[in-house]
């Protein structure tokens, strides 16, 4: 014996999507690891570095904490929207220039040497609570 439903496929799909959304909202952010608040400044050859993206990649993997420097070179990290900081523990730090189109204009390259970004040797150990990490990068 079969039971015929009065619901269309569109209605069933809508109900499933609604249930999924309610599930996501109801669960909150239980998947966020322990975070430490991180702030500091970035200088290049002693001068404040504006428009630089600062990323802390946990040695354990996962999402990076990311921030952008202001005109004074100040940054703070955000893990996800509404959650400031980055994962607690050892991290590799990468600092790159923020380009308006995502890439440097033709004929230009990032003034930040690779040892601070694509081949970064910057390491910091993020602790629970507040952390201040200043970076004075040298181009020479």
What tags apply to this protein structure?
140 residues, mainly beta, Immunoglobulin-like, four-stranded antiparallel β-sheet, 14% helix, disordered N terminus, Carboxypeptidase regulatory-like domain-containing protein
Please characterize this protein's 3D structure.
The structure is a single chain. Helices cover 14% and strands 39% of the residues. By secondary structure, it is mainly beta. The protein has one domain: Sandwich (Immunoglobulin-like), CATH 2.60.40.10. The strands form three sheets. Strands 1, 2, 5, 8, 11 and 12 form a six-stranded mixed β-sheet that branches. A four-stranded antiparallel β-sheet has the order 4-3-9-10, with no helix packed on it. Residues 97-140 are annotated as: Disordered. This is Carboxypeptidase regulatory-like domain-containing protein. It comes from Symmachiella dynata.
Query: In percent terms, what proportion of residues is strand?
Result: 35-45%
- Kindly report the average pLDDT value: 84
Order of helices and strands: HEEEEEEEEEEEE
Number of helices: 1
Corresponding CATH superfamily: Immunoglobulins
Uncertain runs are 1-7, 21-28
What is the total number of structural domains? 1
Structural class: mainly beta
- Please tell me what the overall shape is: globular
Question: Largest sheet at a glance?
Answer: 6 strands, mixed
CATH class, anyone? Mainly Beta
CATH architecture: Sandwich
Q: Work out the helicity level.
A: 10-25%
Evaluate the radius of gyration: 22 Å
CATH topology: Immunoglobulin-like
Cα separation of the termini: 81 Å
Extended strand count? 12
Organism: Symmachiella dynata
Protein name: Carboxypeptidase regulatory-like domain-containing protein
Region (Disordered): 97-140
């Amino acid at each position: 014996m079969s039971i015929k439903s009065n619901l269309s496929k569109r209605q069933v799909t809508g109900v499933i999507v609604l249930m999924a959304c309610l599930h996501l909202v109801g669960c909150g952010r239980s998947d966020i690891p322990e975070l430490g608040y991180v702030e500091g400044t970035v200088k290049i050859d002693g001068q404040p570095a504006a428009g630089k993206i600062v990323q802390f990649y946990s040695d354990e993997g996962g999402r990076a904490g990311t921030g952008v420097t202001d005109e004074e070179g100040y940054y703070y990290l955000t893990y996800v929207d509404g959650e400031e900081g980055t994962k607690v523990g050892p991290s590799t730090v990468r600092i790159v220039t923020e380009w308006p189109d995502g890439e440097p204009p033709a004929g230009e390259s990032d003034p930040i040497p690779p040892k601070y970004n694509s081949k970064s040797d910057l390491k910091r150990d993020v602790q629970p609570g507040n952390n201040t990490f200043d970076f004075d990068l040298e181009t020479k």
